[in-house]
Structures are given as C-alpha cells and as structure tokens.
Design goal:
elongated; EC 4.1.1.44; about 180 residues; single chain; 4-carboxymuconolactone decarboxylase activity; lyase; AhpD-like; about 65% helix; 4-carboxymuconolactone decarboxylase; mainly alpha; CMD-like
Length: about 180
C-alpha cells in the first residue's frame, strides 16, 4: 500500500513537530524491549505516529492517550492486547496487528491464541479474558445490549468496561487514520 504522506524525517520537522517526535520516540514506547519498530531506517516515525506530526497539538493528545492506555491502564497486559488485536482484525489494520502481536507475545499470548485472534475466535480464552474478548466484539458491533452490559459489569467491573470501550475507540481511530493515510 502506498502512503499518502511523506515520511517526515527528524531533520525536516519544525519545532512543534520535533518536540512531539521526541515525546513519541523517547517516551515509554521506546523504553525497554522493542516489540516492533517505532521508526523507519530514515528515523521517520512508523504507523499512525507519522500522521500525528501533521497537527502536533492534537497528535500529542492522541499519543498521550495511547501511552496512558498501554502503560498506565488497569487491564492486565494480556487482556489489553486481546482487545487491540481484535480491533486490528475487525478493521484489517496490518500495522496494528503486526505491532501488537509482538507486544502480545511479550505479554504471554501463545501462538495458538494469536492465531485464534487473527480468525476472530475466542475459544482459547477463559474467565475475565473471555469476558473482555466478548465485550470487545460486542463493542465492535456498535453497542452493548443489557445482557452484555450486565455480564461485563458484574464480571470485570464498570471501570474495566470503560477502559475496554476506550481501547476499542482509540485503536479503531488509529485503524481509520492508517487507512486514510495509507500508512499500513
């Protein structure tokens, strides 16, 4: 897929773009083991992050929300990655699937579980992970009926339902931006 945006190399950025680049490339996504490449060989940001540089104030708010969801959310890492990978599958987001399969492996997802998520199957998951996966699929269909709400709220709690719905919305937005800008 060809991109609609040029890769914005660090040397070509204005001050606001450079400050945002530094927050993304030097923040928690770049700390610790790398499960996917955050930059291209030229130094340009990959995936949705290159587009964030188009509007640095908005891009900063988006990257901060993503960072909080990934590094300061309340869901267990495996559960968070199940949500993200189901969103990536739903929206056929190649970049998010590839990036978060690596993160998912590091969080403990096994190859058979990753394959099940690629196919939209939930059979390998039990307990809270199964509830979170079912919740995610319902949200991807656009809403929760009362039965789904009652099951999720009583099983994982209202705060976790809020976090899952936020993850679904955030990664759905990234999938849209990746499609619009032909960035993966």
């Amino acid at each position: 897929m060809s991109t609609r945006l040029p890769s914005l190399a660090p040397a070509d950025l204005d001050d606001a773009q450079a400050a945002l680049y530094d927050r993304i490339a030097g923040g928690p996504r770049a700390a610790g083991p790398q499960h996917f490449a955050l930059t291209e060989p030229s130094g340009a940001l990959r995936g949705p992050f290159n587009a964030f540089l188009l509007a640095p104030d908005l891009g900063d708010a988006l990257q901060e929300l993503g960072s909080r969801l990934r590094y300061r959310g309340g869901l267990p890492d495996r559960s968070r990655e199940i949500v993200i990978l189901l969103v990536a599958r739903h929206w056929q987001s190649t970049f998010e699937r590839e990036a978060h399969e690596g993160v998912g492996r590091a969080a403990g997802l096994m190859e058979d579980e990753l394959e099940a998520l690629r196919r939209g199957r939930l059979d390998p998951f039990e307990g809270e992970e199964a509830t979170i996966a079912r919740l995610t699929l319902a949200l991807l269909d656009g809403d929760l009926d009362d039965s789904d709400w009652n099951d999720a709220a009583s099983s994982i709690g209202e705060a976790a339902v809020f976090e899952v719905s936020t993850l679904v919305g955030y990664y759905g937005m990234l999938a849209l931006q990746l499609r619009v800008f032909r960035a993966g």
